[in-house]
Specification:
It is a single chain. It contains ten helices and no strands. By secondary structure, the chain is mostly helical. Helix 1 runs antiparallel to helix 5. The two termini are about 15 Å apart. The relative contact order is 0.13.
Length: about 350
């Protein structure tokens, strides 16, 4: 009977985590470069596994989808994203099969890999609905959150499984600090939702290039009634946004308030740990969280001041993913059990 955890499972989970980060970042690039509907069908592109390239193939594709002329460059962006997302799905399936076959191993996680399979299947459905429902904000935002949830769970799986080989000493922190860490993660998740909602409603420039004011005012005209309607009208093309300025301003203003709350909660936790924690790993991770938080705030302000240039906008999305990963890592260390790992576990190399 196999009794030792597998280093190969850990390596595969780390590869999947890196690929998930790539898929999330590339998805943001596709969305922000307005390529989300460049392939009007799913999972193919104008009925092709690749993108129609020849004059005959393009003419045939445009005859089948007259409302969607072929834009080869944008279509390839979308298809590369789909290829990588499919590869990620296969890696997650491999992790689940591996975990199930080794379910008798004491330290082998089984439930989480199986949950990830369900999540990635749902992600595939959301990807399809993103296209078929014409960038419906609720669906696109859910797709973004699902991608980040997949990334976060893969990172958590890698961190928990790596304890068989390495983990820092258990931190000497109170339960209050552990709860603060969970609260910070929840607040960041809420802020990521607001960021996704802002992006899918094309509300990033609703305040113009004014910061800290919005449209030159502290409280500009806002309409919250329709700003957070989670299920708008079906059969409308939401590309470019359909809400009026007052509703988009309400969304953008809410995202700014969320950023302030996130800075206070996450930044406060990081500063406290930097100044008070005794475990070196906690101080290093807290410094990383604080640095990424400040970078995110700076990127958010820069996106407003410079009117959302594509590189900065994509960096802001990727920065959110990195901040999430750093906070998950911090929570992992905060919740390490008091007992140190045994020598057998520490020296396992199977």
């Amino acid at each position: 009977m196999i009794t030792k955890p597998s280093i190969h499972f850990l390596r595969l989970s780390i590869i999947a985590t890196v690929l998930a980060f790539t898929v999330v970042s590339l998805g943001a690039y596709v969305r922000l470069s307005n390529a989300g509907l460049s392939c009007p069908d799913w999972p193919f592109c104008y009925g092709h596994v690749g993108v129609p390239m020849s004059e005959h193939a393009i003419a045939k594709a445009e005859a089948a989808y007259p409302e969607r002329p072929v834009t080869v460059e944008k279509a390839w962006k979308e298809m590369v994203h789909r290829y990588l997302a499919s590869t990620l799905g296969l890696l997650i399936l491999a992790l689940a099969v591996w975990a199930w076959r080794r379910r008798q191993v004491t330290q082998q996680p089984v439930i989480l890999p199986l949950l990830l399979v369900g999540l990635v299947v749902f992600q595939g459905l959301l990807g399809m609905w993103t296209v078929t429902l014409l960038l419906k904000p609720a669906v696109v935002t859910a797709h973004l959150l699902g991608g980040l949830a997949t990334l976060g769970l893969l990172a958590w799986l890698s961190l928990r499984y790596s304890a068989a080989w390495w983990r820092p000493s258990a931190p000497n922190v109170t339960q209050t600090v552990r709860v603060w860490g969970v609260l910070a993660l929840l607040v960041l998740s809420g802020q990521i939702f607001l960021g996704g909602w802002t992006s899918t409603h094309y509300a990033a420039l609703a305040c113009g290039n004014h910061f800290p004011t919005c449209q030159g005012e502290w409280l500009p005209p806002m309409q919250f009634e329709h700003a957070f309607d989670l299920w708008q009208t079906v059969d409308i093309n939401y590309e470019g946004g359909v809400l009026d300025l007052a509703a988009r301003t309400a969304i953008h203003w809410s995202h700014r308030l969320g950023a302030l709350l996130t800075t206070l909660v996450v930044g406060g936790l990081a500063l406290w740990l930097i100044l008070r924690a005794t475990a070196p790993a906690l101080r290093y991770l807290a410094a990383l969280v604080l640095g990424l938080l400040l970078l995110q705030v700076s990127l958010g302000i820069a996106n407003v001041w410079f009117l959302l240039p594509l590189p900065l906008a994509v960096a802001h999305n990727s920065g959110a993913a990195l901040l999430l990963l750093s906070l998950i890592s911090l929570n992992h260390v905060l919740n390490l059990p008091e007992e140190a790992p045994t020598d057998d576990n520490a020296n396992t190399t199977a």
